[in-house]
Design brief:
- With 323 residues, this protein is of the alpha/beta class.
- The chain has 3 domains: 5-85, Arc Repressor Mutant, subunit A, CATH 1.10.10; 93-159 and 262-292, D-Maltodextrin-Binding Protein, domain 2 (3-Layer(aba) Sandwich); 162-258 and 295-321, Periplasmic binding protein-like II (D-Maltodextrin-Binding Protein, domain 2), CATH 3.40.190.
- Helices cover 41% and strands 20% of the residues.
- The protein contains 11 helices and 11 strands.
- The strands form 2 sheets. Strands 3, 4, 5, 6, 7, 8, 9, 10 and 11 form a 9-stranded mixed β-sheet that branches. The chain has a two-stranded antiparallel ribbon with strand order 1-2.
- The radius of gyration is 24 Å and the shape is elongated.
- Residues 311-323 have a biased composition (Basic and acidic residues).
- Residues 3-60 form the HTH lysR-type domain.
- Keywords: DNA-binding, Transcription, Transcription regulation.
- Pfam families: HTH_1, LysR_substrate.
- This is Transcriptional regulator, LysR family.
């Protein structure tokens, strides 16, 4: 008897998660049921698919051979669901996006709000974690990253560039001497990442500031930003977070800035799923639109004289205005 899709779905979850409990959580079923489904599949195929140990479930050779066939079935089911749901241009069903917490906190909310307003039957889940997502384990349908992945059957699309700028609350800046150069950072409390918890080399910028460890730290850029907003010190912040925030002001403009990129990362097989591809198009367009608005807002802030601690360089003004 051919294995059922229900059993193959459970098999893939265990293969990706490495345990019955984690697989059960991802499928919203209890671990005992996961174990029974695996046992039923193994009995039907006449082969052990996993090696069980106190450390979890590891694939046997037979299990390794089954994975690509189970993934083909997964894609076929996704395409079938896509065909049934795909009526006109309206999107429906659930889409899960993994994103760094700064992007998820300050940029994606507006983008997602616009998408679901246009597609009210769509369920969008934004998973904000300060780490890299593993799409091969299907932790999300797609992910936004700050660097290009080196391994995996993935497709990568550059979305947009952004900048990391030094910033502080206006209340903090009102009580300290002007900050015009990197040398002026001495004596100021810096807020940044916990060094041993930096998950991507693109976020490792402390050496540029001549700092080994920040005095206030978090693995979350959103938490760092809120610390600075509360007047705790200086922070390296996303330009799109600063845009329109009248409580904060950039400092060291023209003397310190880091250019970074957001990438959309998808599993290669998902290119055949029209619903996901269409959502990806809307996501990319929305992020680019929001970044354009953020740059315009930052330019207006600088032009009105709201920025503290020095003026923009001509080069940066021209580059910002053309993006």
């Amino acid at each position: 008897m051919a294995p059922s899709w229900d059993d193959l779905k459970v098999f893939l979850a265990v293969a990706r998660q490495g345990s019955l409990s984690a697989a059960g959580t991802s499928l919203a079923i209890d671990p005992a049921t996961v174990g029974r489904r695996v046992a039923r599949l193994e009995a039907g195929l006449g082969a052990a698919l996993f090696l069980k140990s106190p450390h979890g479930y590891a694939l046997t050779e037979a299990g390794e051979r089954l994975v690509p066939h189970a993934e083909e079935a997964e894609q076929a089911m996704a395409c079938a669901e896509d065909a049934v749901r795909g009526q006109g241009d309206r999107l429906s069903g659930a889409v899960r996006i993994g994103a760094p917490d700064g992007c998820a906190s300050f940029l994606l909310p507006r983008v997602v709000a616009e998408i679901v307003a246009e597609h009210p039957a769509l369920e969008v889940q934004v998973v904000a974690l300060p780490r890299i997502f593993n799409l091969n384990r299907r932790e999300a349908d797609m992910a936004i990253g700050v660097s290009m992945p080196a391994v995996g059957r993935l497709t990568v699309q550059k979305i947009v560039d952004y900048r990391l700028l030094m910033a502080a609350s206006r209340r903090y800046l009102a009580g300290v001497p002007p900050i015009r150069g990197l040398a002026d950072l001495r004596g100021h409390r810096l807020i940044g990442y916990i060094p041993e918890m930096i998950f991507d080399k693109e976020l490792d910028y402390l050496d540029r500031l001549g700092v080994e460890r920040p005095q206030l730290a978090s693995n979350s850029s959103a938490v760092q930003y809120q610390m600075a907003r509360a007047g705790a010190g200086l922070v390296v912040a996303h330009d799109f977070a600063l845009a329109g925030d009248t409580a904060m002001a950039p400092v060291l403009e023209g003397a310190f800035e880091l250019k970074r990129y957001f990438y959309l990362i998808r599993h290669a097989d998902d290119a055949r799923v029209r619903r996901l591809s269409r959502f990806a198009e809307l996501l990319v367009a929305g992020m680019r639109r929001e970044m354009a608005h953020a740059r315009q807002a930052l330019t207006q802030m600088a032009g009105s004289g709201n920025a503290e601690g020095g003026n923009k360089t001509k080069e940066f003004e021209e580059e910002t205005s053309t993006k």
